[in-house]
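Example S7 (structure tokens).
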């Protein structure tokens, strides 16, 4: 009987695991709750109208169409029945497996304050990006209608919570929109007076980066007009703004980039989990006590690995490929091999011709880092068409400051008093 491989999730880990099994004599079923693979590192560009959604999303069926041993199912896994080796989907259907790869990623964590989600959307899906884009551009529209300068200031205050790579990139793009893209388009206020505030609980931006690059990033952000608040803890978020201990910041638009938690599917395995819900895995990526199950990407944590495996796309790709190789080895009766992460560097863009990059001991910033960031992201996009579209959109935005995807509908929120 042909071995049945089920892969849950078609992000970077799931997609690259499936592709690495293209020559294996197995039957693969890929399950995802969307019909597209999302290039998540550029999702903030959809949220800020720099790119249209199709430029960073590839239909899963098209991505795997040439692989005859793959069946793609649109659905959402509810739980894994470890004893029976079944995956139960949202409608009760069961998928039996001989080998299972869990690659369902992560979701936003509000640190026990899920009520904040309604007022501060995170950025993990296309729906999140559309929601943020609506809020951002409709805030300017509401400001044009608002006669009270105090209330108008609240509409023109944007708060980004969390100064990791996504938060830094989001804050930089918001500053560019206000100071360049929208210049001259409004009559009752000057968009250049917009206030963008980046709030971080730690003592520097981009905490995973070297201190010198964190400081470079902070300086570049402030030169762009972003107000950076470090060492500040958020204690409340509502429709009118953000509470920071005894301080209050009135703001109508808040974006959450502060924390992540693993997909809840890991909790159904009955094995130990890390504090953030990630599955604690063995060196060969298998789940303890269940060599037929592997977990990769943001869902998994690999204790004892030095350096720690970061929650970034290259790590998920490497883990996906390695999980596939270990499956092939196990099916052939060979021992599996431990995973070793290869760090090819970290990059974060801040704005036009502004970025930081870390390649081991080599640290670069400014225009050179921005070129490295641009080249890497174009290269790793899925599909030639997407690469071409993104390159054209970025070239147009570089020379004109225009954003190609600014059209929104009536939006999520009416004007508020």
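Recovered sequence:
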């Amino acid at each position: 009987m042909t071995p049945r491989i089920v892969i849950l999730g078609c992000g970077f880990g799931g997609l690259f695991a499936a592709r690495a099994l293209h020559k294996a004599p197995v039957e693969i079923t890929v399950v995802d709750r969307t019909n597209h693979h999302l290039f998540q590192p550029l999702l903030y560009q959809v949220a800020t109208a720099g790119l249209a959604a199709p430029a960073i999303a590839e239909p899963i069926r098209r991505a795997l169409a040439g692989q005859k041993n793959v069946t793609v199912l649109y659905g959402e896994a509810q739980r894994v029945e470890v004893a029976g080796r079944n995956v139960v989907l949202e409608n009760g259907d069961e998928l039996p497996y001989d080998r299972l790869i869990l690659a369902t990623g992560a979701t936003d964590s509000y640190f026990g304050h899920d009520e904040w989600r309604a007022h501060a959307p995170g950025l993990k899906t296309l729906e999140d990006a559309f929601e943020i884009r609506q809020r951002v551009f409709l805030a300017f529209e509401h400001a044009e209608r608002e006669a009270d300068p105090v209330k108008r200031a609240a509409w023109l205050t944007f708060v980004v919570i969390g100064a990791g790579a996504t938060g830094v990139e989001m804050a930089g793009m918001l500053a560019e929109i206000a100071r360049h893209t929208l210049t001259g388009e409004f009559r009752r206020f000057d968009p250049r007076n917009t206030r963008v505030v980046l709030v971080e609980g730690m003592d520097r931006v981009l905490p995973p980066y070297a201190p010198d690059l964190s400081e470079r990033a902070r300086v570049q952000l402030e030169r762009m007009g972003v107000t950076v608040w470090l060492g500040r803890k958020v204690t409340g978020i509502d429709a009118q703004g953000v509470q920071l201990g005894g301080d209050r910041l009135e703001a109508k638009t808040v974006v959450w980039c502060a924390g992540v938690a693993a997909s809840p599917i890991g909790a159904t395995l009955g094995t130990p989990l890390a504090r953030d819900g990630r599955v604690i895995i063995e060196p060969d990526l298998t789940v303890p006590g269940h060599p037929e199950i592997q977990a990769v990407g943001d869902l998994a944590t690999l204790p004892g690995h030095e350096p720690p495996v970061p929650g970034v796309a290259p790590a998920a790709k490497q883990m996906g490929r390695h999980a596939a190789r270990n499956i092939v080895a196990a099916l052939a009766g060979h021992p599996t091999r431990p995973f070793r992460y290869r760090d090819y560097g970290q990059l974060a863009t801040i704005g036009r011709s502004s970025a930081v990059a870390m390649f081991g001991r080599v640290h670069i910033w400014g225009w050179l880092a921005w070129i490295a960031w641009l080249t890497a992201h174009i290269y790793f996009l899925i599909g030639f068409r997407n690469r071409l579209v993104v390159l054209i959109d970025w070239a147009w935005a570089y020379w004109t400051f225009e954003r190609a995807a600014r059209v929104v509908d009536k939006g999520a929120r009416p004007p508020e008093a």
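Notes on this example. Residues 4-33+75-108+260-331 form a domain with the FAD/NAD(P)-binding domain fold (CATH 3.50.50.60).
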